[in-house]
Amino acid sequence: MYELSERGDTMSDLVFTWENVCLYAVSSKKNLLGKKTISRLKLLHNVSGLAKAGTLCAIMGPSGSGKTTLLAALSQRSTGILQGDIELNGRPIDKNLMIRMSGFVPQQDLSFKTLTVNEHLHFMASLRMDQRVSQLQIKRIIESLCNELNLLNCRRTRLGQLSGGEMKRVSLAVQMLPDPPVLLCDEPTTGLDSFSASQVVTLLRSFAAKGKVVIASIHQPASGIFEMFDKVCLLVPGGKQAYFGDVDEAKAHFAQLGYICPQEFNSAEYFLTQMSNHPDRLCQKFEDSKHYRTLLKEIAALKSTSRQCTLIYGMDESFLKFYSIQTASTITQMKWLIWRSALDLYRNMQKFMFKMSIYVLTALLISLPYTRTRLDQEGIQNIQGRNYSVVTETIFTQAYAVMNTFPAEIPVLLREIGNGLYKPAPYYLSKLFILLPKAILETILFSSIIYWVAGGSGDAGFFSFVFPIVVCAVASSAYGCCISAMFENTRTASLLAVPFDFVSYTFSGLFLQLSSVPLYLSWIKYLSRFYYGLEAMTILQWRDISSIPCPENKELPCIEDGYKVMYNYGYHPNNLLLDLSGLMIMFFVLNIVGYIFFARRSRKSSTY
């Protein structure tokens, strides 16, 4: 069993090094002939450095210099082609181990804003920490961290109501939950006033003092804040290195090159100005400097010592405990993801109730024109028109509701998946566990109002009226998930969905006589949710109707029974099982396709 006393165990001799790190962004395009061209853009150029336990290292540079890119590369959370050596104590470290041993505090925290600080930390701890840790221990760890980071007074405050400084401290707390030996922070002081920024850097120093490696990128820091760092890595636009070494020696290095910082001038701002004005010269002079040679010698010495120790003692024991961490199972991941989504839905209950009221109003507006529908020749068109309105409204509402809400969570979940918090499959399944009951309940309410207000004309009972509509809703929610997973934004998804839906409802059977459709186009109806839903409702509505009164004028056309109504619209009375099966097959196939696209996006999309 994990013991609380193990927290805070230091790896005081830990040295994190990176040598000749290069990162390429890879993109591919296809021309009209289908020929694929691959292009590579170099984001980082042979960047090197080291950070020792107990010290605070800064990465600084103008906008576009690659500060965030370097941090993401060092944490091995970036996409693209990564080259160079990233090592701990002279030993190469793979992506899986690096994610377990490090915490990454992003510049902009993405989270569910309806959760409180305590709920957010509890969710993160339950998935990030060793699964042998009990919930009671997790509670104690969270309380201890909140006390350390001065978050006790806002533990029950929702994340969306926190100040900038409080949110930064919450982000720090999340990454400190598993007590990682390496902490990387992306611009933790950006957007904060000088006092809040100083508080955050002081917290980073206290964390480093516990024997941790702490690296943070900073942008235009105040003079006092810059001097709180021990080491600094300076990058120029384009991802090239202009300096690495002690903060105290940076002024002397620039002075040797002829760039003398005025006595009362902010040295950090002065360095940024010179790096913007003379990037190439600064990079070349650094490669020729004693600082660069000393850095490479230290890294080489660590590698040499590491090889000797590995031959004699094998793997460093301090690394082994991170390999033995018991991660959350798929069931555990699903449980906590469902818990968070359900809590988010509950906190948005006012919004949900407003949507439901609109849904009820729509049901009343649809049903009122059909309140006096009778089972006669005129009533046939009214009943079919009502059925079509119900099916169409259900399909569009459920599909586009998912299409508009699902992409909103994409940035959050891509980052959490990239951090190894959970896998794509548990998230997708947990989403279905929330979406399906919601879609079913909404549809039952919607169709029930129409059934009781408009009247269940014909012999179709309540269940026969509601059931096919619910199946349509389930299939449509899968369609919305699939389309939204395929594209990065709702606008693009809608551009594809609109023409496809237009063709689908054209082949529903209400506007087009299906029996007259040419053979080479007749297969399209089997891709239409509108066709399956409307045919199923028509069969259940009319299959037990043996007689329909004809008009007194014998010259007027007359449809004598329910079977003739079905045939009149091109439907077959034996297709009920086919229709319901078709909708359920669409549900499974569309969700499988949606998951495949979602999983691909989670692998290819950049986490930061």
UniProtKB/TrEMBL annotation:
**Where does the chain cross the membrane?**
352-371, 432-454, 460-481, 502-524, 576-598
Q: Which SMART domains match?
A: AAA
Q: Has keyword ATP-binding?
A: yes
- Keywords in alphabetical order: ATP-binding, Membrane, Nucleotide-binding, Transmembrane, Transmembrane helix, Transport
Q: Which InterPro entries match?
A: AAA+_ATPase (IPR003593), ABC2_TM (IPR013525), ABC_transporter-like_ATP-bd (IPR003439), ABC_transporter-like_CS (IPR017871), ABCG_dom (IPR043926), ABCG_transporters (IPR050352), P-loop_NTPase (IPR027417)
**Pfam assignment, any one:** ABC2_membrane_7
GO cellular component, alphabetical, reads:
plasma membrane
Gene3D superfamilies, per database record: P-loop containing nucleotide triphosphate hydrolases
Keyword DNA-binding among record annotations: no
Q: Which GO terms describe its molecular function?
A: ABC-type transporter activity; ATP binding; ATP hydrolysis activity
Q: Which PANTHER family match?
A: ABC TRANSPORTER G FAMILY MEMBER 28 (PTHR48041), PROTEIN SCARLET (PTHR48041:SF139)
Q: Which family does it belong to?
A: Belongs to the ABC transporter superfamily. ABCG family. Eye pigment precursor importer (TC 3.A.1.204) subfamily.
What name goes with this protein? Protein scarlet
